[in-house]
Every structure is written in structure tokens, then in C-alpha cells.
């Protein structure tokens, strides 16, 4: 393959290339791929098969050309730093950033020499360290930078000495590093494994991986026009959000709180009473506007709200509370009933909170997109206007990611903070998303036959330290205990129960509904979104014939648990199987015109569309009062599912032309990732959602009445005549 490369690449692309090389495991060297002619990748799944050109037997020249571009970009970047009159040569952070960059440069040359020796069976004719671009970078660095820093820039290791180390020794060391997951870590896809230990109590990461993370975080030097991090204001927005939440909870629980203070003094020695008192005090302080970040230099509303959450947890762990749950008091013990009622009311309001910064969040998304557009225009890029609403979504997404690409290390900083906290406290911190500021919230309502169903954003309500041990958090149990006798929550578990990483969490959630205390209030179904079938990978990759695809799809429900699905008894399997038999050919007919051939993109859209109708069928069967789309953290998979279902219901009952509806969908998709992980939603999840909604929109525009009539017969009631969706 003859590969042409650009004369100049962006410094961030150059650093990404070096990080990709650092992640190569020489004991099992992977093939290398190229994205957009100048970006080196090591795993096809990270970028999608459509955008990666795999380098196989063509020889090393293409990769060598890209390495030259990479070293040239770093050389030019150092020249800009050197010539910048505002450069602070005594700044320790500057020294560390340059040390991190040059460390990766030196490592890349050695590793690629070793890589080609392994893949080609012989050493390169000319070592990479002897190529002109590399030597030019080395000369410039040695001549200009060493003398500029009074204390040197190399840190703990001198990079020139590192280059001269024995290659064989380096090869032996690197073969044990286990760096193959660094790209996945950068994309923030498996950060939960930094909390969770294996069955032997050992971490899933090694020190070499931490070193790469540290290097990547240290490298944040820039001489481009200063761009303010768009997420700097997020903490203040979260503060206002939790201030509003505190007010909502206090209002909803006001009668029980008033009754509590009437009895609190009489029960001062009771640990449950004390913990509830501290929780209520913290909640009042969180609801006090004087404690907003803009009004105080002390503890702020979000810190007080975190205190409220911790005291509520402590209350539910007290011996007194556990006794009241195990041995319910008789009707004459009014104080005990009040304490139970208040505890559960606080837990329910915690899960059903609405917050108060939705419009601010939408404004942040739009500002980020606008600033990304300005950057693209400065670079000479033409900004096209989308031909459809859905094209515009993807164009706007590219703008947003353009700006966020200037601040790529937010998730990595969070991992480093976690490691430091564990080291400082000398304790393993469990993966506990709700306990780690990833709070649930009520997103929108579905109106059906005059009844309202709350759609709740719900991260996995679990705590996990070991990969094989999971516990349900107390406040979720309290939420379920607070539900009236005729109310149910439908938890749609999107985790992969066939995966070693998510099996234990899936099983814990599925098992909870069989607990006698909760089986009237909880239904958990598992709808996998990480299997080979969902992605149409491996054995399903070339399943292009429509009849074969439909047959394979139906087979998923013949042995659902083996394929990653789980349907409890309330979701009658025979009725669901009949629904599947009817729905699959109908989707093929109405949304794909009975085509004999379905591309991989068609099949992915097909799966998404079917999932929407399936969820609607489960709602029809269960008639819940609330539902949630729950993945490990409700940030990517869960947010995309909640957004897809909102868009689906909106298109069934109306259309998507109103700006208000479009902005609400953006809020559903982007806000959790921006606020909690300081990044954009996973692009593949977003693209799957937008692609499916675009197809639904197009076909509803052509034959909407016919589709509603045909599918309406698959449900128990006149589903579509009374179905409405309303955002809060």
C-alpha cells in the first residue's frame, strides 16, 4: 500500500502516535494501522473498521514516514516553545512536560526498532534513531533546551542515556510491561478496573501503565492561542445543581422532617437519630444560598450535599436501622415508623431528584460547539450545514470534540487522583459510582393512559472492590422500600452478563428482584450492548443476507441468557418470544423495505430500532412507575440508551423539528460525560443512537400512520394513542 502523509501534523496527533507506540506489547506485537493517513493505532476496535487501513506485508516505510512526521511535529513544537517570549524556563511543570515528551520520543525509537525486528525477522537497515528527523530533533533539544533549564529537564532519567541502553535488555523489560490497554485507558473505557481488584486482591494495572498515564498528563504544554478549558465552570454548575436538589428534597420531605425534630431530643442516644440529624443539617446547609461557590470561600453546597449523602448511608448502616428492617415495629411504635419513613423518603427523593441547571448545561454544550467551530475555521476547515437534523447533530458533535481535544487529560487526571488517594490512605477504594459524585436523577416523564412513568438516570447501584464480589448500596434498597405497594421500578441493565468485567454486577442486580422484600417493587431485565451480536463483529461480521440475519436475531431469544439477555418471570418469555417473531419481520418491512441485503450499518440500526420496541413492550407488560437504563456508570451506554428512547418516543408521537427537543436530546447525551468524566460521550454510542433515530425519522415521515397501526397490534393496549413523552 502506497501511503502518502501530510507535511505537517498536529502536536496532539504526534503525542497520540507516541502513546500508541508505548502501548505496544512486544511479547505479542500487534499489527499497526493508520487513521486519516497520519495516526498510528494498534487495535481496530478503537476506531472502527471503516476508518483504519491496516499495514500488513507492505514493509515498514509507511510507518517510518509517519514517525518522521511525528518527530518533525515535536521539533516544530519545541522551536515554538523556545522562541516564545512568555516561556517560563524555571517552571517545574514546564520541565516535567518536556521531560515527559522526550521520554516518549526516546522510547518510541527503541520500541519501533525492536517491533520491526520482530515483525520482519530482521533489523531495519537504518535504526530509527539515525533517521534525519529524529537526529534533527535530538540536536535541537540538546543544543537549546539543556542550557535553558538551570536544573536540567530530564527528571529522574536522562533521555540520551535511555537511548543508548542495550536493546536486548530493553526488549526483555518492555515485554513485561502490559501496556496494551493504554489507549483504552486514554479513551476512559475501563477506568472502573482501577478501583476493582482481581480474585487474588491484586490490581489490574501495573506501574508501567501508571508511568504512561503520568507522562501523558505531564505533557500539557501549548504555545497556541490560549483556550479556556470549557469545563472549568462545571464545578460551579454542579454546586448550583446540588443546591437546587437540596431544596427539592427538603420540600418533598418537609412533613417527615418536621415530625423528626419533635422527637429527636427525646432520642439523643439513638445512633440512627443522630445520623439522620447530621444528614438533615448537611442538607439544610447545602440548600442555603450563602454556601454557593460564588458566595463562600469555605465549604460549598456540593460538599455539604456530599456530607448529606454520607450521613444518610451511615444512618442506614446503624444497628438501630438494621433491627427495624429485620424486625418491623408494631403499629403502636410511632417513633420507629417515623424514622423508617424519613430515611426511606430521603433515599427516594435522592434518586428522583430533578436538579436545576439543565438550561445552563445546554448553554455550556452550545458554547463548546461554537468555540470548536471557531478553531476549525481558523485552521481553514469548511463548516458545512447539515442537510438533516441528524447530520447537524454529527457536525455539531465534531465541533464539540474539536475544542475538547485541546483538554484531553481530564479522565487521566481522575485516575491519578484515585491512585494518590489510595496511596495516601493506604486502602483500596471500591468502584462505587453513586458514592463517587455520579448521582442519579430524574430525566423525563412518559405519559401513558393518564399515568406517568419517570425515566431515571441510574448508574449501577452497586459497590465493588473485588471482581467477583458485589453489594447493592443501601440507599437503593431504601429507594425501593419507599415505593408504595402498587409501584414498580423497571431496571434495564445494559451491562454484559457474558463479560468477566460485568458479570458480577449484572448477577447482583438480577438477583435483587428475587429478594422477598423487593420482588413487588423491582423488575430487572438485561439488554446487552457489548456483545459480538450487538456490534455485529466476529462471526456476525459478514451476515449480510437479510434472512440469515433475521434468523440469527431470533436465535438470540431462543437461548437468551447464553446470548447475554435476561428476562425475569414477570416478563413472560413466551409472550416476548411471540413479540420477537412478529416484530423482526415488521421492522425489516417498514424500516428496511424488505431488502435482501443488509449492510453492517443497516444491521446495527436494525438492532437499535428493535431494542426501542422491545423496551416499550416490557413497559406494556410491567406497567412500572419508573424505569432506568443502567450501565456501570450511566455515562456512555446508559445515556445513549436514555437519549435513544426519548428520541424514539418523540418521533412516534410527534417530530423532532423543535429546537427545544433537539437541545434536550443533546443534554441527555452529553451532560453526564462532561460533568462526571470531563469528556464527550463515547463517539460510537452517540453515532449508533443518531443513526437509528435518523432512520426512524425518515420512515415515520413516509409511512408513520401505517407503522403505528401495524406495531400497535403487538401491544396489550392502545399504546400509541395515549403515549407522550415530556421532559422536566
What this model shows, in words?
The protein is α/β, with parallel strands linked by helices and 728 residues long. It has four domains: 11-177, no CATH class; 234-351, no CATH class; 358-404, no CATH class; 439-727, no CATH class. The chain is built from 27 helices and eleven strands. It has helices spanning 11-22, 61-83, 92-120, 132-145, 159-163, 167-174, 182-186, 207-218, 234-252, 254-263, 271-286, 301-317, 319-326, 334-351, 358-378, 389-404, 410-425, 474-482, 503-512, 532-535, 546-558, 573-592, 600-622, 637-653, 659-677, 683-712, 719-722; strands at 32-35, 39-41, 52-55, 441-448, 451-457, 462-466, 469-472, 489-493, 522-526, 626-630, 724-727. The radius of gyration is 28 Å and the shape is globular.
Secondary structure topology:
Layout: H1 11-22, E1 32-35, E2 39-41, E3 52-55, H2 61-83, H3 92-120, H4 132-145, H5 159-163, H6 167-174, H7 182-186, H8 207-218, H9 234-252, H10 254-263, H11 271-286, H12 301-317, H13 319-326, H14 334-351, H15 358-378, H16 389-404, H17 410-425, E4 441-448, E5 451-457, E6 462-466, E7 469-472, H18 474-482, E8 489-493, H19 503-512, E9 522-526, H20 532-535, H21 546-558, H22 573-592, H23 600-622, E10 626-630, H24 637-653, H25 659-677, H26 683-712, H27 719-722, E11 724-727
Parallel strand pairs: 5-10, 8-9, 8-10
Antiparallel strand pairs: 1-2, 1-3, 4-5, 4-11, 6-7
Strand content: 5-15%
Residue share in helix: 40-55%
Rg, Cα atoms, Å: 28 Å
In the sheet with the most strands, the strands line up as 9-8-10-5-4-11
Tally of strands: 11
Reported for the largest beta sheet, the result is: 6 strands, mixed
Alpha plus pi helix count: 27
Class from helix and strand fractions: alpha/beta
Amino acid at each position: 500500500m502506497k501511503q502518502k502523509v501530510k507535511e505537517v501534523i498536529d502536536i496532539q496527533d504526534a503525542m497520540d502516535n507516541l502513546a500508541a507506540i508505548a502501548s505496544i506489547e512486544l511479547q505479542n506485537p500487534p499489527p499497526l494501522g493508520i487513521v486519516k493517513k497520519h495516526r498510528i493505532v494498534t487495535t481496530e476496535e478503537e476506531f472502527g473498521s471503516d476508518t483504519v487501513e491496516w499495514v500488513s506485508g507492505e514493509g515498514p516505510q509507511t510507518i517510518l514516514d509517519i514517525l518522521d512526521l511525528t518527530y518533525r511535529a515535536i521539533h516544530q513544537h519545541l522551536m515554538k516553545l523556545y522562541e516564545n517570549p512568555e516561556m517560563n524556563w524555571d517552571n517545574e511543570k514546564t520541565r516535567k512536560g518536556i521531560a515527559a515528551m522526550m521520554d516518549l520520543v526516546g522510547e518510541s525509537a527503541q520500541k519501533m526498532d525492536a517491533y520491526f525486528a520482530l515483525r520482519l525477522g530482521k533489523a531495519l537497515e537504518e535504526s530509527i534513531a539515525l533517521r534525519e528527523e529524529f537526529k534533527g530533533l535530538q540536536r535541537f533539544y540538546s543544543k537549546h533546551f539543556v542550557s535553558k533549564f538551570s536544573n536540567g529537564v530530564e527528571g529522574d532519567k536522562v533521555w540520551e542515556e535511555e537511548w543508548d541502553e542495550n536493546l536486548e535488555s530493553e526488549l526483555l523489560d518492555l515485554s513485561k510491561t502490559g501496556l496494551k490497554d493504554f489507549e483504552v485507558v486514554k479513551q476512559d473505557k475501563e477506568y472502573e478496573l482501577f478501583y476493582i481488584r482481581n480474585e487474588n486482591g491484586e490490581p489490574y494495572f501495573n506501574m508501567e501503565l501508571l508511568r504512561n498515564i503520568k507522562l501523558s498528563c505531564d505533557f500539557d504544554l501549548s504555545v497556541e492561542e490560549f483556550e479556556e478549558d470549557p469545563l472549568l465552570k462545571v464545578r460551579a454548575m454542579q454546586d448550583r445543581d446540588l443546591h437546587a436538589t437540596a431544596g427539592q428534597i427538603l420540600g418533598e420531605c418537609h412533613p417527615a422532617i418536621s415530625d423528626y425534630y419533635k422527637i429527636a431530643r427525646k432520642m439523643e442516644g439513638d445512633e440512627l437519630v443522630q445520623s439522620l440529624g447530621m444528614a438533615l443539617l448537611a442538607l439544610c446547609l447545602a440548600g442555603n444560598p450563602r454556601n454557593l461557590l460564588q458566595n463562600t470561600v469555605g465549604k460549598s453546597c456540593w460538599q455539604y450535599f456530599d456530607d448529606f449523602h454520607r450521613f444518610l448511608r451511615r444512618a442506614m448502616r446503624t444497628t438501630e436501622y438494621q433491627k427495624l428492617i429485620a424486625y418491623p415495629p408494631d403499629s403502636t411504635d410511632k417513633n420507629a415508623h417515623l424514622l423508617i419513613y424519613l430515611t426511606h423518603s430521603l433515599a427516594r427523593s435522592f434518586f428522583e431528584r430533578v436538579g436545576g441547571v439543565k438550561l445552563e448545561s445546554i448553554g455550556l454544550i452550545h458554547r463548546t460547539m461554537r468555540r470548536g467551530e471557531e478553531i476549525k475555521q481558523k485552521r481553514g476547515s469548511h463548516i458545512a450545514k447539515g442537510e438533516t437534523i441528524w447530520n447537524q447533530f454529527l457536525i455539531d458533535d465534531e465541533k464539540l470534540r474539536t475544542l475538547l481535544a485541546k483538554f484531553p487529560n481530564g479522565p487521566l487526571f481522575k485516575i491519578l487522583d484515585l491512585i494518590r488517594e489510595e496511596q495516601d490512605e493506604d486502602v483500596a477504594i471500591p468502584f462505587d459510582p453513586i458514592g463517587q459524585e455520579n448521582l442519579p436523577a430524574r430525566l423525563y416523564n412518559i405519559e401513558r393512559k393518564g399515568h406517568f412513568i419517570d425515566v431515571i438516570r441510574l448508574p449501577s447501584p452497586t459497590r465493588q472492590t473485588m471482581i467477583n464480589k458485589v453489594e447493592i448500596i443501601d440507599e437503593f434498597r431504601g429507594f425501593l422500600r419507599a415505593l408504595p405497594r402498587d409501584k414498580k421500578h423497571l431496571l434495564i441493565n445494559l451491562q454484559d452478563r457474558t463479560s468477566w468485567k460485568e458479570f458480577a454486577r449484572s448477577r447482583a442486580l438480577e438477583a435483587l428482584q428475587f429478594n422477598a422484600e423487593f420482588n413487588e417493587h423491582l423488575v430487572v431485565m438485561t439488554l446487552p450492548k457489548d456483545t459480538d451480536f450487538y456490534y455485529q463483529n466476529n462471526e456476525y461480521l459478514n451476515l449480510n443476507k437479510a434472512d440469515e440475519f433475521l434468523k440469527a436475531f431470533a436465535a438470540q431469544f431462543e437461548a437468551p441468557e447464553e446470548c447475554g439477555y435476561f428476562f425475569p418471570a414477570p416478563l413472560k418469555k413466551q409472550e416476548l418470544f411471540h413479540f420477537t417473531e412478529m416484530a423482526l419481520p415488521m421492522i425489516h418491512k417498514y424500516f428496511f423495505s424488505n431488502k435482501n441485503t443488509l449492510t453492517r450499518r443497516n444491521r446495527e440500526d436494525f438492532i437499535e430500532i428493535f431494542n426501542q420496541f422491545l423496551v416499550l413492550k416490557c413497559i406494556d407488560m410491567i406497567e412500572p412507575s419508573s424505569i432506568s437504563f443502567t450501565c456501570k456508570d450511566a455515562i456512555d451506554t446508559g445515556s445513549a440508551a436514555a437519549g435513544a428512547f426519548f428520541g424514539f418516543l418523540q418521533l412516534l408521537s410527534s417530530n423532532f423539528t423543535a429546537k427545544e427537543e433537539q437541545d434536550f436530546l443533546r443534554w441527555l447525551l452529553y451532560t453526564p460525560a462532561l460533568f462526571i468524566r470531563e469528556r464527550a460521550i463515547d463517539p460510537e454510542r452517540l453515532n449508533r443512537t443518531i443513526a437509528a433515530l435518523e432512520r426512524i425519522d425518515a420512515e415515520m415521515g413516509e409511512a408513520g400512520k401505517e407503522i403505528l397501526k401495524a406495531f400497535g397490534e403487538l401491544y396489550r393496549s392502545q399504546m400509541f394513542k395515549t403515549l407522550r413523552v415530556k421532559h422536566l
